[in-house]
Amino acid sequence: MRIPLEQAGELLIAGKVVAVPTETVYGLAASIVHPAAVESIYSIKGRPSSNPLIIHVSSLDQIIPYATEIPPFFYELASAFWPGPLTIVLPINTDLVPDKIRAGQPTAAFRIPNHPLVRELIALTGPLVMPSANISGRPSATSPSHVEHDFGADFPVLDGGSSIKGVESTIVIYLSDRWEVIRLGSIPAEEFEPVLGYVPEFKISLDGEKVLCPGQLFRHYAPHSRLLLVTDFPEDLQGTIIGYSDRSYPKGCDVRVLGSLSTPEVCAERLYHVLRQLDEDNVPSVYVDMAIPTTGLWATLRERLNKAAG
Ligand code: TXA
Ligand code: MG
């Protein structure tokens, strides 16, 4: 059910959960001051309670009071990428952030999103916690109809159109003396170099110890359709293919085009639309063209497709 901004604000202030647009993907929002609403996010999504939530704010001064330490280059990152698809994990005063939100971690993840509606909304409600607005494990929602598909036609959604980035924020953390990327996302790691002087590495864990981003432990982004990752296509192949407009595929195949190999941003924007459409069309399995670059936004697309394939 599409609702106007004022109503979304009222519902959130009253302790309800509302789906809201961001430039990356839709979020399932609850006010940080309503523990019962935060808890219901986990049950609505079927999300493991060990997977913490990102706190979304509208300005830097809403973050600073939580932090027990401001790492070097934090302000430089904030001014280069916020508002936008960057999430920064900081050590925090755990008395100020309920355990549920941070899933027991001594840190919390923060983001200042860049969609005009969510910014206006946070100005009304204060900080909102929100995971992606999808059933846990499924492709994220990048339009109101995706949210309604997962949570029902009556679920309240603030309609902000299709998400323009189409994949989630990039998550970074400062550890000992470097920033590390702990979830690939819509900002390619290379884009941090002008700010940091180096390209942060994508790290799942430090020395094989505990994972840095708990979400990495779980199945993600997966349609019911089975994804078969391939790098070449025999001439006699038949079936459905996720591919690129500048490639040719065997005759007679049903090709679902992500975009051109020269426009990874378009491919990212379309990714979850294409994955979700497979289920709409009851496609049991699909070949995915993985002969794609390994750098820039392609690294993120690769990771999403790998995860979606399980
Ligand atoms: O673009 C996005 O980030 C979207 C929009 C709605 O803002 N949100 C999103 O939330 O992708 P979610 O819940 O689907 O993914 C959040 C990720 C999870 O993998 C979680 O483990 C990680 O952030 N995370 C949250 N708090 C963390 C923390 N304190 N330390 C490490 N990772 C954390
Ligand atoms: Mg998610």
The strand line-up of the biggest sheet is 2-3-7-4-6-5-9-10
Instruction: Tell me which ligands are bound.
Output: threonylcarbamoyladenylate, magnesium ion
What is the CA-CA span between the terminal residues? Answer: 32 Å
Structural class assignment: alpha/beta
Query: In what range is the share of β-strand residues?
Result: 15-25%
Order of helices and strands: EHEEHEHEHEHEHEEEHEEEHEH
- Portion of residues in helices? 25-40%
- By DSSP (H or I, 4+ residues per run), the number of helices equals 9
> Which overall shape is indicated by the principal axes computed on the Cα atoms?
globular
The gyration radius over C-alpha positions equals 19 Å
Could you tell me the number of beta strands? 14
Query: Which parts are unreliable, with pLDDT below 50 for 5 consecutive residues or more?
Result: none
Mean pLDDT, to the nearest integer, reads 97
Report on the biggest sheet.
8 strands, mixed
Descriptive tags:
310 residues; binds threonylcarbamoyladenylate; eight-stranded mixed sheet; 9 helices; globular
Q: What would you note in describing this structure?
A:
This protein is an alpha/beta fold. The chain is 27% helix and 20% strand. It has 9 helices and 14 strands. The chain has helices at 5-13, 35-45, 74-81, 99-102, 116-125, 144-151, 193-196, 264-280, 297-309, and strands at residues 2-3, 18-20, 27-31, 54-56, 86-91, 107-111, 128-129, 157-158, 170-175, 178-183, 226-230, 240-244, 254-259, 285-289. Helix 1 runs parallel beside helix 5 (116-125). The radius of gyration is 19 Å and the shape is globular. Threonylcarbamoyladenylate (TXA) binds next to strand 5 and strand 6.
